[in-house]
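Subject line: Sequence and fold of a protein, written as structure tokens
Body of memo: The sequence and its backbone structure tokens, given next.
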Amino acid sequence: MAQKQSVVIIGGGPAGLTAAWELVKKGGAEQYDVTVLEETGEFGGISRTVKHNGNRMDIGGHRFFSKDDRIMDWWKEVLPLQGAPSYDDKKLGRHHDLEPGGPDPEKEDKVMLKRHRVSRIFWNHHFFDYPISLSANTLKAMGFKLTMVAGFSYLKSVFHKLPETNLENFYINRFGRKLYSMFFEGYTEKLWGRHPSQISADWGSQRVKGLSIMGVLKNAFQKLLPKKRDSKEVETSLIEEFWYPKYGPGQLWETVEHNCEQAGAKVITGAKVVEVRQEGGKIASVVYVDHEGNRTELKADQFISSMPVKDLINAVDESDKPAPRDITEIANGLPYRDFVTVGLLVKHLRLKNTTDIPTLGNPPIVPDCWIYVQDPGYKVGRIQVFNNWSPYLVKDVDDTVWIGLEYFCKEGDDFWNMTDEEATKFAIEEMTRMRVINGPQDVLDSHRERVKKAYPAYFDTYAQMPELVEYLDSFGNLYCVGRNGQHRYNNMDHSMATAIEAVNNIKTGKTSKKNVWSVNTDKSYHEQK
């Protein structure tokens, strides 16, 4: 019998747990000795679910949708699709194509719901479609004069293309300067803390690759046609239905972690990797520190890392063979954007449901999963309405509204350093000024959550990432996966795909890691499949 290969996986987020499951499922533990090291006590990383007084918060909002069939199949194997209506669908008479023989979410917990996607932009006290569209509602909210200015501005961008040397020009080429200034400029600066002219166009090409006014018009026209389109034909940002675990994304990753342990993987929590040791041009071992400060060295044949690239290089630096100085400088210059979520449990929203979409609540709440606050007059970037993601996230879904307010910031800045009370007071004042709630008297409960390194950013030393990739790939037995592991603003499905590719390389002995790094860069893979 061949000797087992030992594999250490750093990080218990989507990429790390995907890699672990791919190695140990179907008896894989007989061939691979897998250990997962997770710094915290929770699983899912930014895709975790935070529990607070009977209510649940989805950190960042996670739509389960992918153009990669492997990922869609993977998800529904972990949590099968619903076979009966959920609480709100039943109460509101909403229809979804149910899975024959699938679980009833009213009776079982391990179930993936089908949800309708509604997200809108809140600008100047008006709602606009998200992504921005040329609907009658948009034209009415903008008014005749502004619509004409935006229209001619867009036509100019069609015939006069700017060099796409930065994110500002990328957006202007697709939407025109006027719509860019209204809906993208301020929001992008709010999100990244930098003006779009200072950010690489790579971010736009990755996140909104197929999205443009022409794409919006094409999608609107095709929706009028009788032929039902396959979801793969639709730009990801325009998808109108997605899957969602009954108790939020963390439920899926907690289930995967449990499955991994049952299948033979070892999972160690409270394990922060502080040193990466090398020998003979390969990674030989990692050293982790537990909550008591004890250091443990773990040797292995293969290493899969989803820890931030900056931290990984610094961990190599702590060994007796530190990384070259230029590599360390690039890694330490990689920027991140952190964020804070403030959850508010309120009696009701001041915002009225003026759509024809039925919703829960008394009075009925707005139908949005997300409300994007493009208006630069407010610090809040997005508002999540957890009632609409899943009725099971909210303890009293009929008579209370559980919202999450997302603030983009930098670890250590004034907003990050606010106390829970200060951050909550700030959030309540903004929501009152925005006319989302009537005032503090309507707030029943609150919770503040801070998230480090939520968004890898595309400026500063990011342009030198190829040099970091070359150095990291020189260790033949090290695979960098996931959002922070590759310093790429991946969606959850892309992070998972990097892990699947890495495991395939380990299983087949493939030495090139190009397939691992190229996930979410190929157009055929990303949007236009």
Remarks:
- The radius of gyration is 23 Å.
- The longest strand covers residues 443-456.
- DSSP finds 19 helices and 19 strands in the chain.
